[in-house]
Design a protein that fits this description.
The chain has helices spanning 3-11, 35-44, 92-110; strands at residues 23-25, 31-33, 47-54, 59-66, 85-89. It is an alpha+beta fold. Strands 3-4-5 form a three-stranded antiparallel beta sheet. Helix 1 packs parallel to helix 3 (92-110) and helix 2 (35-44) runs parallel beside helix 3 (92-110).
Length: 112
Amino acid sequence: MGLDFAVSQLEATGWAGSESGGCGRLADGRVYPEPVRVSREFADAGFVLRLRHVPLFDCYRAEWSEASTEAPAGGSGPDAGGSVRTVVGRTCDEAAVYALALMRRSAAMATI
């Protein structure tokens, strides 16, 4: 996928990064939210975001669920407290940014 693709998907949701605090910058000059800021944006939207490295596949996993249905520590999946959505990326930034793009897209679709 790549961070460039994840940022493009995020920009397609209307995210502009007008407040650049907590942001990184791509080589082409576009800004993107770093994982701490992404976590805040998930919390502001009523979700809990968990980011973790998966050594077996050398990738990062981002999973999120509604804050009211947060999975118990170490748990995930439908039996752990509700719907959990997941994406993976090569880097933590990539997984976090792509997760934010999908969460924002889902939220926009829910209001239609």
